[in-house]
Design a protein that fits this description.
The chain has two helices and no strands. The chain has 68 residues and is mostly helical.
Length: 68
Amino acid sequence: MPRPPENLQTIRFFGALNRFLERNENLFQKREEKMLKVEKDMNEWNNSFLKEIGEVEKMIKEIEKRME
């Protein structure tokens, strides 16, 4: 019994999609590596920023104590 045309189109589509993903696997890996690097850089920046904010908060508390 032959397959209906809709199923044949679906099979062709997923076959083409699979071939595309296999050919471009390196492209996706490179993007993932870039995103991991960006996340790492953002975490480093965020940690240093939070550290500086903590120091400013300590200074403010010290000034408030002196003003009492």
